[in-house]
């Protein structure tokens, strides 16, 4: 599918083809710091690896299968329901930033618009 983003120094967000995926590993379970961007990650915990079985996997066969699925029109992106499930499942990997803790401790969610005060980030920092 297409993804929307603003290129460096561009003025407008534009659609671009999704060109790459990223795979990484981390130590520990608290690495997602941006709750709005967590759908970009598919976190899961690996309890053990059978290294001999992993080495026996033919990466050429994996690539061929992925290419075949792509060419057959296989949907490889998440729909809205799957994104909601991903958010729920990734909560265990969320880290509470100091900024988020400060906001949660010092501010309340208003019950009506009349209770609202719209503040910039700078105004919040100096509140």
TrEMBL record:
Pfam family, one: VapE-like_dom
Originating organism: Tannerella sp. oral taxon BU063 isolate Cell 5
Name this protein carries in UniProt: Virulence-associated protein E-like domain-containing protein
Domain Virulence-associated protein E-like, first and last residues per copy: 4-93
